[in-house]
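Sanity check. The docking grid for acetamide depends on where the pocket ends up, so I'm generating a full predicted complex first rather than guessing from homology. Inputs follow.
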Amino acid sequence: MKRFFFLFLLLAQVASAQDINIIPKPASVQVKPGNFTITRNTTIAVKDKEDQSTANFLNDYLQQVYGFKLNTKKRASKNYIRLSSRKSSTDTGKDAYTLDVNQDGVTIAGDTYAGTFHGVQSLIQLLPVEKSTSLEIPAVAIQDAPRFSYRGMHLDVARHMFPVSFIKKYIDYLALHKMNYFHWHLTEDQGWRIEIKKYPQLTEVGGYRDGTIIGRYPGTGNTNKRYGGYYTQEEAKEIVKYAADRHITVIPEIEMPGHSSAALTAYPWLGCPNTGPYKVEQTWGIFDDVYCAGKDSTFTFLQDVMDEVMAIFPSKYMHIGGDESPKTNWKTCPLCQKRIQEEGLEDEHELQSYFIQRMEKYINSKGRTIIGWDEILEGGLAPNAIVMSWRGEDGGIAAAKQNHYVIMTPGSHVYLDHSQSQREDSVTIGGFTTVQKTYSYEPIPKELTAEQAKYVLGAQANVWTEYMSNPAKVEYQIFPRMTALSEVLWTAPEKKDWNDFEKRLLTQFKRYDMWGANYSKAYYDIDAEVLPSPDKQGVTVKLDAKKDLGKLVYAVNGMQTEREYTSPLVIKEPTQVTGLFYKDDQLVDSLTLKLNINKATGKEITLNEQPSEYFPGMGAFTLVNGIINRKGGRDQQSVGYSGSDLEATIDLGTAQQVNNVVVHALNSGGTYVYPPKAVEVYGSTDGKNFQPLGTTNTVSEVAGSKAIVKVEFAPATTRFVKVAVKNTQTVPEGKQGAGEKTWLFLDEIEVN
Ligand code: ACM
Ligand code: ZN
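Predicted complex below; grid placement will be based on this.
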């Protein structure tokens, strides 16, 4: 009996593995009996200077979050947090650490100083998530090391600029997630943000724009307010030091040859002689004004700029952009054309490659390595360049196969400017990337052999700030997806587990609260799935939510009839379904689906051609699921076609009278997305022989980014309805992307 009681006590003291909520998940965690309590009397024992800066980080954290600090001494034998790095500054590239907690104290031993620093991050995550001056932590033995050597976050400070204090906070967020590279995007069409002493106009002129569009591109107006600013070299050096103290390398990005309107505005001689005048852009997108590749003075300028940049940033890596650089000006520039001839280049793509290679040679001569976006593959890769793969993974795969190092940043998983919720309350650039999707990312593409996979250094999330004008919005966009990415980058794939991550994420939410950080609660979003009803006479609506964390209820056609949701709802007439999710009796999410039931809803539908892999919606059924995207916008409720037409055949099940067909499309103000050029409707009783019913080439209604095309015809009796929707196909002259393929987006086809 006594022994049993003793055992019970022992068990009660051992924290369960679930109580260890460290993100990213460590390689090995062993929970031991007992605990240790950090109080004001605890001493940080630390011997050398680098570990002292890690101790300072810990103290700053304790001060900010818990309101007290600890003394540091060279040694302590009781009540201590001991930091020691086994090797001096020889970086093994592994940055492993061990963390041991027993009744006497905490011992963190890194392979490197960075390893010790990462160990302190794990210690921080053992601390309680309530403010206290007595911080009990479980006795544990942790062994840990990162999977990838490159664990990065990017930030665009050109579209919107953030104060030095926020840049430091952002760097702290990286540190807390054991990330080690901060990619600082410093130059753009909309502003040049780093002081270059030899060319003061870059910031004095190029640092400011005369206004900014309001709302989503193309915008509902302009602020007409001067916007801008820049970081002085002193500030940039301070940031580099701040990051280095956190074992983070700052990689500056100086964009070339594109995204350089601000530089050209400052120094118009940098552009092709047949172009201009230039302005610091006030809207978003891709602009034709790029550096002239025909002038040697362009290269002298960029070399001078890089000289100053390399003096500020000790990083081995220098990012020189290379993305989205239109060739329009180069095609008609006599100097660029002369360069093509003299260098024996094939075309303007090879001219871009010449440009990047010439800059690479210079930067290599200074002992640095260039990174470029995946467009630098086009026209031939610079010999030593590292490729940042953003347009999916293809660029990264191609580069690794050419034995080039690669950093993966695919738009599909790690563009944190995308929406995280299907019902975003603020404007984003679009897309839809949940925290779970980011978590699911695997940086090593299947296409690579084990040997080629070694060229993948790691991955990074990109944070483009067109629609993030303040720090709170940046935080909202990065959290919690950045937290998910940290585990992708750090934790061995066999240890990754979404369900386990979710449990730890709940504690992480409390940490965000303690940090005072803004974050998205889209994790609690209700998930709705609309499927054909079993008899195909309507739809089945399935709701899902984190039911073990709260309560899911629903209401039909108004709020009077709230009921607990237990099983899918079958809907056969126009209905509004609202799902409501309560956590701790607070409403954390609500979702309303307006189901527009018509003759096509829930019916069998076939497409002559599948939509683009980038915009597949939820397949063909998207078009007859009863959900009309009333605001427009590219989401899971629409399918996209690039340059091609779409032919949909709907089987109504039985022959019946039809009077008209309504096609719901997206119209995006001339940004590659155009309403249908024409819609043709055909009927058939056997699904083989179709007769024309009606056609139109006019858009009946354009509202915001929506376009509706209604085809009316004499009432006809038919079972099969074929709807041929014609794509505009080519972007008209004078519009953005003239000559390129247009997109056709459809979200619903009604048959009435
Ligand atoms: C990019 O997103 N243009 C690299
Ligand atoms: Zn030129």
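Relevant for the grid: The pocket of acetamide (ligand 1) is lined by residues 323-324, 373, 390 (CB under 6 Å).
Also worth noting: Confidence is low (pLDDT under 50) at residues 1-18.
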